[in-house]
Amino acid sequence: MQAVAIRRGETAPTVVEKPRPEPEPGEVLVRTLRVGVDGTDEEVIEGSHGGLPPGEDHLVLGHEAVGVVADANDTAFEPGDVVVPTVRRPPAEGPNEYFERGEPDMAPPDACVERGIDGAHGFMAEYFTSPAEYLVSVPESYAEWGFLVEPISISEKAIDHAEASRSAFDWDPDSGLVLGNGSLGLLTLAMLDARGYDRTYCLGRRDRPDPTIDIIEELGAIYIDSRATPVPEIPDAHEPMDFVYEATGYAKHAFETIEALAPGGVGALLGVPEPWEFEIDGGTVHKEFVMNNKALVGSVNSNHRHFAAAVETLGSLPEWFLDALVTGVYDLDSYEAAFADDDETAIKAAVQFAQI
Ligand code: NAP
Ligand code: BGC
Ligand code: ZN
User: Fold this and answer.
1) The pTM is what?
2) In the predicted structure, residue 19 carries a pLDDT above the cut 90
3) Cα of 40 from ligand 2 centre, angstroms
4) What's the gap in Å between 348 CA and the centre of ligand 1?
5) E strand or H helix that includes residue 212
6) pLDDT per residue over 263-293, tens digit each?
7) How far apart are CA 56 and CA 128, in angstroms?
8) Domain boundary assignment for the chain
9) In the CATH scheme, what architecture does the domain 2-137+318-352 have?
């Protein structure tokens, strides 16, 4: 079968030929339908995040997949079921408390591997196998959008943790700010909208006309250009925010988020930046946290529960939004287009392995 992989030392993905995997007992064979591409894939390809499986010279890419069960292999699944795989798997060695309690998303990086990202092959192949416990059922009617379940699940977790950090008092957020107008940022903006935030904002650094700004405004949110209004100026230019969701990977935003928050507000940090040294006024940041009861939560990955919630959320997102967000679905013979980074009109792309 064919798979899209990044080879050691190379800077662009390539198609490789691999044997079709055989499911072990307890595993399901899945025929891949579509696999999405996000900012993390770009980081993996450029070599700033993740790594190859031990002893291998390539990594099969792809962690946002949807497929159809081809061989249920005596599990509870049936051939033809539409499924989405979770990303994390236990590393080869020893017992693992995070996986045992169903919270692989809480494992530190050395206590897990991530398929398609770090230490394990991904799903960007004609077929993949997975233990049944790491597959989540998706209604057949959502199959074409199923590759969005994984990124939505990322925000289900982050919002869940942010809300939990405010659960000790009567927190009723009205204003929500998303930093970043990439695919994760826009999906999250749509989720905040659906969660009943009265006023939503999204930060980018693009000139109009731009399709992401069109989506932001169609969602009823306000576009903020970080070149004109840097994050610390947002409270004066607009209003202090009850919730901030950082999805830029721009490291200064972690600290600037504290200034953008309203008293009692919470920021969720999602970006995975490279090392970058810069100066901050630590005293002011520390005092601001304390005197205004603010919180920041870091959040990575998601577990089965967040995937199940994401399936529900996917079903509630408007069709126009999904159509506008997914700007390209490419067959394997033009897979390069899904990774092209020179097209400002591209938002979310996927590689299609089989017709839906
Ligand atoms: P993406 O497509 O690269 O989106 C990032 C967006 O942020 C881009 O649209 C970029 O604008 C914008 N941006 C960057 N710096 C900015 C600045 N200073 N001011 C305004 N806008 C700025 O990536 P993504 O897939 O949406 O993911 C977003 C981030 O979350 C990445 O860092 C990714 O690694 C991370 N992530 C984390 C998790 C997790 O589990 N924690 C999961 C998925 C993704 P331009 O396009 O105009 O440059
Ligand atoms: C993936 C997560 C993963 C994270 C860090 C994200 O793009 O969606 O599943 O845990 O990157 O590698
Ligand atoms: Zn991702």
Assistant:
1) 0.98
2) yes
3) 7
4) 12
5) helix 211-218
6) 999 999 999 999 999 999 999 999 999 999 9
7) 17
8) 2-137+318-352, 155-298
9) Alpha-Beta Complex (3.90)
